[in-house]
Design goal:
11 helices; mainly alpha; about 250 residues; UreF_sf; about 0% strand; chaperone; Urease accessory protein UreF; UreF; cytoplasm; globular
Length: about 250
């Protein structure tokens, strides 16, 4: 079992180095809620958590998403993101297949699997049709050969690695986009005001940097999750009577 660091580094040393401005603008575009991958249609089970009274205000929303980042899909996706990016940088197709297969399998419910696979597929397709980095076609073919839809984290890792981006910066951007999308779902569902949403994102920012830093240094044995209540909410959402979100 891994040991998480207790505080985020002051300037996140070892997490993200200096970012090329050209990389920065692409990361801002690719992780934007306006990037057409349908992220706004997924709540990662938060819709049921609100229905069940588990998430009812800003504090409980932050706690719920923090648990996802530290112990649920946030952690597993971060470890597999780091593994996939490393595989591309090292020209290791077998290692990428390993990461892709585990990313596809490690989902607590059918809706969470859909959430990841649909966004990953859309991300690869959209980047490929707009500003594909050199080498993306080859690595996309490796993913296709697994016979599995690409998980969102793996798709972003492959694209950013092909683009030569700093893996720490790319992973932080991915986790920020993931957390911000969940906050946006909570703002609409609880409901909360937009300022409360930004307060929630500010509270989660050091958490995602900590997760990214630990994931970049993680061993494959550290892969795993321990967020059963999140999985319960996601599974319960599948039969929820009234639903706005797909997960």
């Amino acid at each position: 079992m891994r040991t998480m660091t207790t505080e985020a580094p002051a300037a996140a040393p070892g997490t993200a180095g200096p970012v090329d401005p050209r990389h920065l603008t692409r990361l801002l575009a690719w992780m934007s809620p306006g990037f057409p991958i349908g992220g706004y249609t997924y709540s990662h089970g938060i819709e049921y958590a609100v229905e069940a009274g588990r998430v009812r205000d800003r504090e409980s929303l932050v706690s719920w998403i923090e648990a996802i980042l530290l112990h649920g899909a946030g952690w597993t996706d971060a470890v597999l993101f780091a593994a996939a990016a490393r595989a591309v940088r090292r020209d290791d197709e077998a290692a990428l297949r390993w990461a892709a297969e585990r990313a596809d399998a490690m989902r607590g419910s059918s809706e969470l699997a859909l959430e990841s696979a649909a966004q990953g597929t859309a991300f690869l397709s959209t980047v490929g049709a707009t500003w594909p980095p050199v080498g993306l076609e080859r690595w996309a073919a490796v993913l296709a050969d697994t016979g599995r839809p690409p998980a969102h984290a793996v798709a972003v890792a492959v694209v950013t690695a092909c683009a030569g981006m700093d893996p720490g910066a790319a992973l932080c951007a991915f986790l920020h986009g993931f957390a911000a999308n969940l906050v946006s779902a909570g703002v609409r569902l609880v409901p909360l005001g937009q300022t409360d949403g930004q307060r929630a994102i500010a509270r989660l920012d050091p958490v995602l940097h900590r997760v990214a830093s630990d994931a970049l240094a993680a061993d494959p044995a550290d892969l795993g999750s321990r967020a059963p209540l999140v999985d319960w909410a996601a599974m319960s959402h599948e039969t929820q009577y009234t639903r706005l979100f797909r997960s």
